[in-house]
Design brief:
By secondary structure, this protein is of the alpha+beta class. Helix content is 32%, strand content 21%.
């Protein structure tokens, strides 16, 4: 079944991202899957962990309301088209892994590019064909917390205490620590 998200909302998502592409289509469809499976009605405290930094993350952010600033959009750079959605209110969730082979047989229409054809194939495919879904019953991350800031003893900038590193008895931010210890 083709994407069920309102066409106007899809156009707004494309405008937010800046262009239409297969990556954005993957994010739109992943968000659609989350909105349906988690019965999103505005009362859901949704969390999304993305395993990629591709275009699709913009679609997820725009359509679900998950953002880095609110602490409910987490990036784990695994280089996979994997997306974990979790409803903290209901303690249920799932991980969706995009299955690229689901759209391998697409055929560009007359005058359309391969990119446009891939985008159309993703938007028209069955969600069950696009994603391998596995249940998640524990929160992928804890809620965001406000922590103290500590001053880096080299650059003088404030650093969230959970990101401070100790080297030679000094509190250092990660970039300054990296200048001394090259193993991270």
């Amino acid at each position: 079944m083709a994407c069920t998200i309102d066409k106007k909302k899809i156009e707004e998502t494309i405008a937010f991202h800046g262009h239409s592409c297969p990556g954005l289509a993957i994010g739109i469809r992943a968000a659609e899957l989350a909105l349906h499976r988690l019965d999103f009605g505005g009362q859901t405290e949704m969390v999304c962990v993305v395993e990629t930094d591709m275009c699709g993350v913009d679609g997820i952010q725009f359509l679900t309301g998950c953002t880095f600033g609110k602490g409910n959009l987490i990036h784990r750079d695994f280089g996979k088209a994997g997306f974990t959605f979790f409803d903290r209110n209901k303690s249920k969730g799932f991980r969706a892994l995009f299955q690229d082979d689901a759209i391998q047989a697409f055929e560009p229409a007359n005058g359309s590019s391969e990119r446009d054809a891939r985008t159309r194939a993703i938007m028209d495919a069955e969600l069950d064909d696009l994603f391998f879904v596995s249940p998640v019953d524990t929160p992928p991350v804890r809620p965001a917390r406000i922590l103290d800031s500590i001053i880096c003893r080299e650059c003088g900038e404030k650093v969230m205490e959970s990101r401070i590193r100790r080297f030679a008895g000094k509190d250092l931010c990660i970039p300054c620590f990296g200048q001394h210890e090259q193993k991270i």
